[in-house]
Design brief:
Shape: globular
Distance between the termini: 52 Å
Structural class: alpha+beta
Radius of gyration: 16 Å
Mean pLDDT: 96
Bound molecules: tetrahydrodeoxyuridine
CATH superfamily: Cytidine Deaminase, domain 2
Oligomer: single chain
CATH topology: Cytidine Deaminase, domain 2
Strand content: 15-25%
Number of helices: 5
């Protein structure tokens, strides 16, 4: 799928954002290796921290459907610069995507910035860091 088509899917998803508190609509589209596309929009809550970003909604939908291999992601919001994903979403991307996978971030003016997962979150904490321990509490 072309970058443009994935971005248009993200824009479509953005329209379904549930954002009564911020009024900030975000859409995401995630393409999997086997050709499926999972869409996400941000979903807010009166208890603000319960909110889930568009990127994580798309990723969690895909994971919960058994997807394990991802090709690229597009994210769009009405921002002056291409919308920077939040830190939590970057950490989740880093858990499930290859470090070299590309994420197209954009805005409604059509500006697009393509970044790798590694560029979005360098030196990220990973499962490797958990397994490199001996299980003892050190002083
Ligand atoms: N948000 C996203 O959905 N993705 C981003 O990349 C940045 C922030 C949402 C969370 C919240 O609903 C609103 O934008 C304002 O922070």
């Amino acid at each position: 799928m072309s970058k443009e088509l994935l971005l248009s899917k993200a824009k479509e998803a953005r329209k379904r954002a549930y954002v009564p508190y911020s009024t900030f609509h975000v859409g995401a589209a995630l393409q999997t290796k086997n050709g499926n596309i999972y869409l996400g929009c941000n979903i807010e809550n009166a208890a603000y921290p319960v909110t889930c970003c568009a990127e994580r909604v798309a990723i969690f939908k895909a994971i919960s459907e058994g997807e394990t291999e991802f090709v690229e992601m597009a994210v769009v919001a009405d921002t002056e610069r291409p919308v920077p994903p939040c830190g939590s979403c970057r950490q989740v991307m880093s858990e499930f995507f290859a470090q070299t996978m590309t994420v197209h971030i954009s805005n409604l003016q059509g500006e697009v910035k393509t970044m790798s997962v590694e560029q979005l979150l360098p030196f990220s904490f990973s499962s490797q860091d958990l397994s490199d321990r001996d299980g003892k509490v050190s002083e």
